[in-house]
Design a protein that fits this description.
This protein is an alpha/beta fold and 495 residues long. The chain is built from 16 helices and 21 strands.
Amino acid sequence: MKITKDLYQGSLALLTDFYQLTMAYAYWKSGKGEQEAVFNLFFRKHPFQGGFTLAAGLDYVIDYCSNFRFGKEDIEYLSQMKAPDGSPQFEKGFLEYLSELKFSCDIDAVEEGTVVFPNAPMVRVKGPLIQCQLLETPLLNILNFQSLIATKAARINLAAKGEPVLEFGLRRAQGIDGALAASRAAYIGGCASTSNVMAGKLFGIPVSGTHAHSWIMSFETELEAFEAYADAFPNQCVFLVDTYDTINGIKNAIKVGQALRKKGKEMMGIRIDSGDLAYFSNQARELLDEAGFPEAKIVASNDLDEHIITSLKGQEASINVWGVGTKLVTAFDQPALGAVYKLSAIKTENGIFQPKIKISQQSLKINIPGIHNVKRYYSNDKAVADMIYLENEEINPRGTVIIDPTDPTRRKRIMPAFYQEEDLLKPIFKKGKAVYQSPDIQKIRERAQKQLDSFDKTHKRLVNPHLYPVGLEENLHHLRMELVLQAKKMENGNA
């Protein structure tokens, strides 16, 4: 599946912030454009006040980078831009440089469906400064949104405790692109199907849906509407019962279900979209069971999210399937993940990568310098800790200490020899060539579930989750502190 090919028919190089182009021009003008650099994409805080984040969107990134180029129309548009004094915004030589630009970066990234944590890189980009800089905005755009929605979906599915969650959000999503990306990410996060037929076609996601209130209202009676629907779809009848009176709607569904059974067919269930879902679902269960339909499913919708589902379960609602729309595809309670993209190293004239640091009055915003990766340690297939470490660093198998990047007093001793380990950043591109074969969406979804299963339930609590240990390897922590102190000396004029 090729996103740009199917949806855009061309280059997306101009899907960027203007300041990326002005910096690219300034790099070119100063002769730094081809200087090699390393950037990391990471986030600083889990969304939804949760204890985990689920990575999604890498397939879009691969497609974007594989098709990265400035086309003729892009160059023509840029050539028409004017500076405030009326002169061309960009020199002709720079535009010629862009027109001949070929993607040549190395990209390492966590695989889709991986559980990730604050401050640890999700993506590492290494290559010419101009190319690395131009990738910042599109990568953030793609990964911020899809990871956010996949995480929301995972939380909703945790609340549903194994019962199917159907994604119904197309009509409330943020435009066409947002709807497609949300449907894909929601499926990765555990949803069983989508109502979005185009997402089904493009991504291979199961689609589902029944009928709306307008179907019922187009007939003289509700019973007549149910009978006509059963005639059209005798093998997949789920009746929406709350157009007029919910209890009568349930009884009418039972009547049609009994008529179907005489024809050798079976009613699948009913859907309730309004009112007291706990009360009406329990009434429905009682009526369905008494009428001989104990296998009929009760589907609930109506602005559901993980908290409402948890409340309904606490009320012992008789709901088997959950239809979730607006609050899932818009990430209603937190509209952005907030991932950032920071320079962490730059190659000097002697061919050595120099670690770079950004300091801030907020310790949370001090980046992690150098070229680093993330190791996840497992014990009997259960994740015990993540360590951010310098790639050229030898890790002592008999023991090392990881130090929380935001609170140095939080430390944990790791004995690597006693654990299984996995490097989370995988090679995706080498010198601009894709070296990673994206798995199909079913495999990504399975990975997400396996990843979530590997974490203790306390880390997946929807409220006040237990903090999973993620820390800097000792030597990386010391390097970071040394660079912070050097930067502060320069800031105070003591260099």
